Amino acid sequence: MSLIPNMKFRYIGALLAMALLLSMAMVVMQYLLHQQSQDARVINLAGMQRMLSQRIALFSSIDSPQGLEALRLAIDDFEGNHHFLTEKEGGQYHHLNESLESLYYENPIQLHQQSLTFITLAKRHLKQPNTQLSEGILTLSQTLLPNLNQAVSLFEHQAKLNTERVRKIELLIWLLGLTVLFIEAKFVFRPMAKEITETFRQLEASKKLADDALQSKSRFLARVSHELRTPLQALHGYLDEFIKSADAKQLEHVKSAANQLDILLYSVEDFNSLSQQDIVIERHQIQLHDVIKTACISFQLSAHNKSLTFNLALGNALNMACFGDAKRIAWLVGELVNNAIKFTERGGIQVFADIVMTQEASYLEFIVEDTGEGFDYKRLQESMRTEHFQGSQLGLQRCQLLVSALGGQLKFTARKPFGTRAELQIPIEVDIENVRSSKREKLSTNVLLVEDNLINARVIEKMLQPIAKQVTHAEHGEQALEIYQVGKFDVVLMDLNMPIMNGFEATRKIRAIDPIIPILVVTANTNSADLDKVYELGATAHLYKPLQTEVLTDKLTAMLDKR
Questions:
Q1: Cβ within 8 Å of residue 495, ≥6 positions away
Q2: What are the backbone angles phi and psi of residue 558, rounded to the nearest 5°?
Q3: Fewer CB near the last or first residue (10 Å), C or N of the chain?
Q4: Is position 185 within any domain?
Q5: From CA 40, how far away is CA 158, in angstroms rounded?
Q6: Consecutive H or E run containing 220
Q7: Residue 188's closest CA among 21, 2, 17?
Q8: Domain containing residue 348
Q9: Looking at beta carbons, which pairs linking 176-184 to residues 24 or more positions away fall under 8 Å?
Q10: Are 552 and 442 part of one and the same domain?
Q11: Over the chain, what is the mean pLDDT?
């Protein structure tokens, strides 16, 4: 998050600006205070000159050793003060402004010259005291005194001007400080406060979103867990019936329940990619009659439990071989039928499906009609937030995403006087030449099957027996490498998660040995990053478990044809 460094930088910048301003103010104030101290000393010395001039006049009339010593001290102080007040540096007077300079050096007063004359007379009297010099000193002191008073007034006026200047500078520094504080408040601290408020708002929104997502996933997993038990219950029930009666029809129901379970598992695996709207449509040769019948037949029991009639009408065109994504079509069909049963309390469900062929295109038409209260999206959304475990609750949003990805359309219309009609249309590629069986006859190859689960390996071997010349089984990647180096194979079926050596490493090493051998990854791992990795290592294609014989055959045929 860049907020903290950004705020830290601006905050430090604001503090540095204030510190710089305070430092400048301190330097200026110290200088001004020094000037005021100098002004006070100057005024004090100028005032002393008046007193000293009178002391010199007084002590010059006293003819005694003590009087002469006092005179000498007064003369030294008067002379020293005068030199201090009139000292120059670089041609400029330190303590005299223009008015004082005129008083000291220009006519008619020339206070500087008067002071020097006064000092000279006093020193002569100090060396050789006489009455005439004493009278001259007294007379000159009376002339000098008003001029010294004027000098003191001018020095005081100069100090007053300097004090006024200090006051103005202090006011300017105060105003400058307020300006800096205003600028910092407006352009630094106020935006920082807004950013902090906005960041906290975003964090609260993110927290709420995360909490909602967690609750949504928790509800989803609970509902899926409940929904998976339905086909599992059917599997157990029909297998028990078969064990008791040995009726082969029970195995057909087992097959339907297994297919429904497969579809449900596929929808769960697909949930993450759908939430990211990153849908990859698979293309396999399928028979829509079997796909739709299998998807619908498991809901007959649900309709029967609610005392609803359930009529399924399938068109003959559905028996044609087609290409499409069977599991996603089956999920869409099942979701629409499930919703129809869920929102219907009396009456029945009518289901119709067929392939419509026009000059432009062919498409699957699937229609579900119910006699419920009518389609209510808000009611459906409310039911998804309750603890009602009917369906996997992936919802109409997933339906719309899948329909859009399949290039189809889904619409709902109200039936009169009540009920809802759901109409699904999905483009279908019809296999006109129906080359499916001819491909099977042509396929005769040696297969290396790398699978650590013995049961899965035996099932896949059974699937491959009618179409493969020989299937050699390896339980892990290291054993597969040993077998591959001494045998001759046309294709490799590779599992990913195995002990000793996994499918990633085995794929890399087999590809290093043979750069053209087709490697078909057969895995239950649906992680896209793992699939990208195995493709980078040399995989040719992949299929997800559980496998369908027809899908496996089509994939192997396509891979070998390309070779």
A1: 450, 451, 452, 453, 456, 503, 521, 522, 523
A2: -65, -40
A3: N
A4: yes
A5: 11
A6: helix 190-245
A7: 17
A8: 284-430
A9: 176/21, 177/21, 177/25, 180/17, 180/18, 180/21, 181/18, 184/14, 184/17, 184/18
A10: yes
A11: 81
Query: pLDDT tens, 199-226?
Result: 888 888 888 878 876 776 766 666 666 6
Q: What DSSP character marks residue 186?
A: I
- 453 and 533 in a single domain? The answer is yes
Whether residues 301 and 398 fall in one domain: yes
Strands across the sheet containing 491-494: 470-474, 446-450, 491-494, 519-523, 541-544
pTM (two decimals): 0.43
Q: What is the pLDDT of residues 402-420, one digit of tens each?
A: 888 888 898 888 877 778 8
Q: Give the count of domains, the chain.
A: 3
Cα separation, 101 vs 99, in Å, equals: 5
**Among candidate residues 165, 194, 223, the one where a domain is terminated:** 194
Cα distance between residue 425 and residue 407, in whole Å:
9
Q: In Å, how far from its chain's centre is CA 180?
A: 34
Tokens coding 478: 């290291």
Q: Are residues 506 and 412 in the same domain?
A: no
Query: Residues 359-376: what's their mean pLDDT?
Result: 82
- The amino acid present at 407, given as its one-letter code, is G
467 and 407 co-located in one domain: no
